[in-house]
Amino acid sequence: MTSGGAPVLEARRVVKTYAGTTALAGVDFYLESGRVHALIGENGAGKSTLLKILAGVEQPTAGALRLHGQDIRFASAAEAAARGIGMIHQELQLFPDLSVAENLFVGRELRTRWGTVAWQSEDEAARKALARLGHEGIPVSTRVGALALGQQQLVAIARELVHDVRVLLMDEPTSALTAAEVPVLFRVIRDLTGNGVSIVYVSHRLEELLAIADEVTVLRDGRVVGAAPVADVDVPWIVERMTGGGLSRRHAARPVDSGRAVLSVENLSLPARPGRTALDSLSFTVRAGEVVGFYGLMGAGRTELFESLLGLHADASGRITLDGEDVCRDAVSGRVRAGLLMVPEDRQASGLVQSLTVRDNVTLSTIGRLAPYGYLSPRAESRAAQPFIERLRVKAPSLEAPVTALSGGNQQKVVLARGVMSRPKVLLVDEPTRGVDVGARLEILESLQRLADEGLGVVFASSDLDEVLSAATRVVVMARGRIVSDMPASDATPDLLAAAASSAPVPNRGANGES
Amino acid sequence: MSPDRGAAAAAILVRLRAAIALVVLAAAFSLLSPEFLTAGNLSILVKHVAINAILAIGMTFVILAGGIDLSVGSIAGLCGIAAGALLGRGLVLPPLGVVVYLHTWMVVAVALGVGMAVGAFNGVLVSRLGVAPFIATLGSLYVARGAAMLTSDGATFPNLAGSADLGNTGFTQLGTGSVLGLPLAVWVMAVLAAAAVFTAGYTPFGRQVYAVGGNERAALIAGVPVRRVKLLVYVISGFCSALVGLIIAAQLGAAHPATGQTFELNAIAAVVLGGTSLMGGRGTVGGTLVGAFVIGVLADGLVLLGVSEFWQMVVKGLVIVLAVILDRFQRRSS
Question: Does CATH number 3.40.50.300 belong to domain A261-339+424-502?
Answer without folding.
Answer: yes
